[in-house]
Design a protein that fits this description.
Shape: elongated
Largest sheet: 4 strands, antiparallel
Strand order of the largest sheet: 2-3-1-4
Pfam families: DUF389 (PF04087)
Keywords: Membrane, Transmembrane, Transmembrane helix
Distance between the termini: 58 Å
Oligomer: single chain
Number of helices: 14
InterPro entries: DUF389 (IPR005240)
Radius of gyration: 24 Å
Order of helices and strands: EHEEHEHHHHHHHHHHHH
Number of domains: 2
Protein name: TIGR00341 family protein
Low-confidence stretches: none
Length: 330
């Protein structure tokens, strides 16, 4: 559950309280109006009721510039809420533990392009290149965990689900900067340090199969499921599973070393990971009911939904064809 706190003009207090009760708030309490004639209403809201309540509050208060809605987490509450096992199971199946607004606040951070992102991308590339050259799997995994490249990819898919062009643009720029920086640094590394072609970690990123496609799809879906279920800590394992950094680093190192035939495999693996994460993330967001609030925005998103999914399915089909063709070549 969460505490939804509404600070709005006092004339809306009865409507806010009524909304809380209508949408299933477990408890509601409020204080007297303040000097600025705003009143605070707090509600203890279960997961299943939070998104409908948030949508209703935004529709009520969208013209009130002094209004504010704050969502706070709850570690524990007594007495415990009583519900039947069937009701609890239904809530788990239907509810997204994080509302659209909570998801936006968390996911949008991954699309932020600042010096911390640039430094993390640079340092993780250096660590990955050293680990790949030394064939040290522990170092490579460390670089995969600290690399920030997966965040903007998921942010782009989330923005497409909401039709948010601003967030989509920021996520796209951040992704291109991160991948471009990793490619440039690893290319420089390959120019000054001969590529170790006996390294298993390097060769593993040049051999692409259908198993890599399945892994990337499953990992992209798991990343979004962990976010929408309120379990962001699970993202660490997902980032390791479908890391974008190692194939990017291997691609740059091989290009710097002039090994074009092997660089094709690394480029193919990187493309597969990006396309699969975007496609899986979009499908999971769609299945979880993450969509714009108003019907007009939903209509616009529906119009672009088929085009978006069709584009990435087509790209994935082309990549699978390239994988099969490459495997058939002697």
């Amino acid at each position: 559950m969460r505490i939804v706190e509404v600070i709005a003009p006092a004339r809306h207090a009865k409507e806010v309280i009524g909304m809380g009760r209508f949408y299933g708030a477990v408890d509601t309490w409020w204080g007297p109006p303040s000097e600025d004639q705003r009143q605070c209403v707090r509600m203890l809201v279960p997961d299943a009721a939070r998104q409908p309540l948030m949508d209703a509050l935004q529709s009520l208060l969208e013209s009130e510039h002094s209004a504010r809605v704050v969502v706070s987490s709850v570690d524990a509450t007594l007495p415990r809420q009583k519900s039947t096992e069937a009701e609890a199971q239904k809530q788990k199946q239907e509810a997204v533990s994080a509302t659209r607004e909570e998801l936006y606040s968390e996911i949008a951070q991954g699309a932020r392009l600042d010096w911390n992102y640039v430094l993390l991308a640079s340092l993780s590339t250096v660590v990955a290149a050293i680990g790949l050259a030394a064939d040290d799997v522990a170092v490579v995994i460390g670089a995969m965990v600290i690399a920030p490249l997966l965040g903007p990819i998921i942010a782009f898919a989330f923005a497409a689900s909401l039709g948010d062009r601003s967030l989509a643009g920021r996520a796209l720029v951040t992704s291109l900067v991160g991948l471009g920086l990793a490619l440039l640094l690893s290319l420089c590394f390959g120019l000054i340090w001969p590529v170790n072609l006996s390294s298993h970690e390097v060769l593993a990123r040049t051999d692409v199969s259908l198993a890599n496609v399945a892994l990337a799809l499953a990992s992209g879906a798991a990343a979004v499921l962990s976010l929408t279920s309120g379990l962001p800590t699970a993202l660490v394992g997902v980032m390791v599973a479908v890391a974008l950094l190692p194939p990017t680093s291997v691609l740059g190192m091989l290009l710097g070393g002039g090994r074009w035939e092997l660089a094709v495999g690394a480029a193919l693996l990187l493309a597969v990971n990006v396309v699969c994460v975007l496609l899986a993330a979009k499908i999971v967001f769609l299945g979880k009911g993450v969509r714009p609030r108003t019907w007009l925005e939903r209509a616009k998103v529906r119009q672009s939904m088929a085009l978006y999914i069709g584009l990435w399915v087509t790209l994935l089909a082309l990549l699978i064809g390239a994988i099969l063709l490459r495997g058939a070549l002697p």
